Amino acid sequence: MGKNKLTVPDDLDFSILTHLQKDGRVSFTVIADKLNVSIGTIRTRFNRLIEEGTISIVGRVDPDKVGFRSYAHIAVYIRPATLKEQVARRIAQMPEVSFLAMTSGAYDLEVNVMCRDNDHLVAFINEISAFEGVFQTNTTMYFKVYKYAQPDLMLLKQ
């Protein structure tokens, strides 16, 4: 199955994904036992989900525990508006960026970043402020993160 043909995830796919969200290292044997299907079925479904880009298995790092001390939300205002895509592509390439989206609100792009410290954050803001089209930025610091999670797939069942 190629990347051009995507399969709509069914209940079994969502169950597999839910188990992997809880523990990305869980074995196919354990998942198969819990879902009462064969290991081959789990392996086939898993490989398809990987191939289609529905899931990727990565080690999730707690940013605070490894030394990231400065988290921020940056609202980016772009003028002229025709430069939004160009600016977004440049910002997306920056390693500090953990989230980037075009918005419909008062600003054009929402950027979440994780930096080593406040000096690193200031350097980041200065760098993006120099991009052609960046008219203004507005930064909100996160003092404490209470939840950092993947979406709960069970919300799709309601």
Can you walk me through this structure?
By secondary structure, this protein is of the alpha+beta class. It has two domains: 11-51, Arc Repressor Mutant, subunit A, CATH 1.10.10.10; 63-142, 2-Layer Sandwich (Alpha-Beta Plaits). It contains six helices and four strands; from the N terminus they run H-H-H-H-E-H-E-E-H-E.
In short:
This protein is of the alpha+beta class.
Write the layout of secondary structure elements.
Elements (H helix, E strand, L loop, with lengths): L10 H12 L5 H8 L3 H13 L11 H4 L3 E9 L5 H9 L4 E6 L6 E7 L2 H12 L4 E9 L16
Antiparallel strand pairs: 1-3, 1-4, 2-3
Helix pairs in contact: 2-3
